[in-house]
Structure formats: C-alpha cells, structure tokens
Amino acid sequence: MVSAEHPDLSEVELVDILRAIADPIRLRIVQVLADGAAHFKSEDEWGCTVHKSTMSHHFKTLEQAGLTRTITIGRQHTIQLRREELDARFPGLIDALAPRH
Asked: Which domain holds residue 72?
C-alpha cells in the first residue's frame, strides 16, 4: 500500500524541492534513492548517525515536498523516489542532484 500523503507534483514548485534538499542528510537520502529501488527506512540504510526521530522528520519533509513516497506493507516501511514523475515535471533535476559515476 502506498502512502497517500504525497502531493500532486503538478502543484509542487521547484523552490519547494530545493528547500527540502538543502539539508545535507536529505540530499544524501535523495542520492541513495536515485537508484530507483525502494529502500527500508532503517537507520543503517543511510549511513547517518542521527536519532530515529530525526530521520523520520527528514523522510516526512521529503515526502511533503513531493520527492518521495512511502510504501507500507504490513509493518514494513520503505521509501522510494518519485523518479519518473520528477523527471517528467523537472527534467534533469535528479540527474543533477545524483550524478551517476
């Protein structure tokens, strides 16, 4: 089941996305998610040494900005970049934020 909290990208402005990724931890999350896979929201996944509540805040900020979606299956929560939708609305943005090496 996909969370219904994410906004319609047609209503999202570029400044909202830039504001969300201005934080280095959130930018790192977007860069990890740029691989297209859904990732578990566990702390170990991101290489960050912040509290679980802080990570939850970062995940929520990214979702409210329209960058991500949360997928809930039972008690498991994964997060995924809305890559196709973002590429359609803001072409080249994700490639600029997370260049492939």
From this structure: 9-90
89 and 12 in contact (C-beta within 8 Å)? yes
Q: How many domains does the chain have?
A: 1
Q: Tell me the pLDDT of the chain (101 aa) as tens digits.
A: 555 567 888 899 999 999 999 999 999 999 999 998 999 887 566 677 778 888 889 999 999 999 999 988 888 889 999 999 999 999 999 999 987 75
The candidate with the shortest Cα–Cα distance to 33, out of 100, 101, 98, is 98
Q: Which helix (H) or strand (E) holds 86?
A: helix 83-89
Provide the CATH number for the domain around residue 84: 1.10.10.10
Residue at 57: amino acid letter: H
Q: Which residue has the tokens 């170990």?
A: 44
